[in-house]
Design the sequence.
């Protein structure tokens, strides 16, 4: 385990207006920019906002206390940028990876997962289960931050993560490529172990608390549920992903 963790390259947050602005101008891969809700967006902060929009880097207003925690005593001047551990790839790269292995694609698409520990755990499980990649929207989702890399325990070095502008459009494209699009929904009638999870497939899971957005749900070929027999009526998204991924792996093993 130590070797896996050591293989993850960590990158500290970029703190302060000049550091963030120069990183944007230099084209460094940034996951998102965190901007204090109390900051007056003018001068250097206005320049940061314009550069971020031009380079399609999400900007998220946050409580100043979050910036205090990230900057660890360094004056943040109302802004912190989160750098990527590694850049996101294109959707086609995931399909190419499956073709190179001469395997039917197995992908995981995440509709707004915001907790880096959940994203890291899903990447780690997807890699262990033999998936070919994970898909995340570039906006309204966590990116490949150091916190994600720590939670993934090195799996980000082996499993590519693709960023897409519209998850709904990406699912349509995958359907055109012949993949079955299966969404996890607690209200679905079909149980996840009914035999539906057969590659080529993309498993679609919603974000914490909200589940699948309507448009994303509409793009699914079928919806499946994980039966819950206790009093707790929901599962952590990383646990749900693990159950679905290993159901796919079970079918792959039977077909081998």
Sequence:
């Amino acid at each position: 385990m130590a070797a896996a963790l050591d293989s993850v390259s960590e990158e500290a947050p970029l703190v302060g207006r000049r550091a963030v602005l120069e990183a944007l101008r230099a084209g460094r891969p940034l996951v998102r920019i965190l901007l204090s809700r109390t900051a007056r967006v003018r001068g250097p902060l206005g320049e940061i906002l314009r550069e971020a929009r031009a380079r399609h880097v999400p900007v998220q207003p946050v409580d100043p206390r979050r910036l205090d925690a990230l900057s660890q005593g360094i004056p943040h001047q109302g802004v912190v940028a989160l750098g990527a551990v590694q850049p996101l790839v294109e959707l086609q790269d995931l399909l190419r990876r499956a073709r190179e292995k001469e395997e039917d694609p197995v992908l995981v698409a995440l509709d707004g997962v915001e907790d880096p520990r959940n994203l890291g755990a899903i990447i780690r499980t997807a890699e262990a289960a033999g998936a070919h990649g994970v898909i995340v929207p570039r906006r309204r989702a966590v990116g490949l931050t150091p916190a994600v890399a720590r939670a993934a325990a090195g799996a980000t070095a082996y499993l590519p993560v693709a960023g897409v502008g519209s998850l709904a459009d990406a699912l349509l494209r995958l359907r055109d490529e012949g993949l079955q699009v299966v969404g996890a929904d607690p209200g679905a009638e079909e149980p996840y172990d009914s035999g539906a999870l057969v590659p080529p497939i993309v498993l679609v899971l919603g974000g914490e608390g909200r589940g699948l957005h309507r448009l994303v749900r509409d793009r699914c070929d079928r919806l499946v549920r994980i039966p819950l027999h206790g009093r707790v009526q929901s599962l952590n998204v990383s646990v749900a992903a693990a159950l679905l991924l290993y159901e796919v792996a079970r079918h792959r093993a039977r077909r081998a």
